Amino acid sequence: MKPDAIPVDTIVTTAVLHHLPDFWKFAGLKRLAQICRAGGKLYLFDVVSSFDMNDYESRLNQWVKATGEKVGPAFVWEVKTHIREEYSTFDWIMEDLLERAGFAIETADYANEFMAAYVCTRKG
User: Fold this and answer.
1) What is the residue-wise DSSP string for 7-47?
2) Can you identify the CATH homologous superfamily of domain 8-122?
3) In angstroms, what CA-CA distances link 121 with 22, 25, 98, 104?
4) Angle at 57 between CA 56 and CA 58, to 5 degrees
5) SS3 of residue 16 by DSSP
């Protein structure tokens, strides 16, 4: 950050990080921590898997099926594209990335096994 820049109080990121491999997720989170004031808040909502990784095939198939039932077949294509071409992160990896980037996780809401919402505070 530039010496005369004023850090921000709040950052909101929604469905962005799943487009990046974990290496670049960390780089992005580290940059967010640099522009957030100490004690500032980060709200992050994204594709984060919280199921047993040994059961990935059946869980991904269930995600595709449930999406078709809830939202319709048009969005099934989006989910299949995500699985094939984008970068989901497991919960335990995302939590570590957030902590290492300089955030303390206040709440972690795993509404289903594929999406998560975090409220974090920028450390010290």
Assistant:
1) PEEEEEEES-GGGS-HHHHHHHHHHHHHHEEEEEEEEEEEE
2) Vaccinia Virus protein VP39 (3.40.50.150)
3) 21, 18, 10, 5
4) 95
5) coil
Per the listing, tokens 């450390």 go with 123
Structure tokens at 43: 């709200």
In this prediction, residue 99 has a pLDDT band, given cuts at 50, 70 and 90, of very high
Joined together, the tokens standing for residue 46 give 């994204």
Distances (CA, A) of 38 to 7, 46, 63, 65: 9, 23, 38, 42
- Residue 58 burial class via C-beta count within 10 angstroms: exposed 0-12, middle 13-18, buried 19 and up: exposed
Write out pLDDT tens, residues 18-72.
999 999 999 999 999 999 999 999 999 999 999 998 999 999 999 999 999 999 8
> What are the residue ranges spanned by the domains of the chain?
8-122
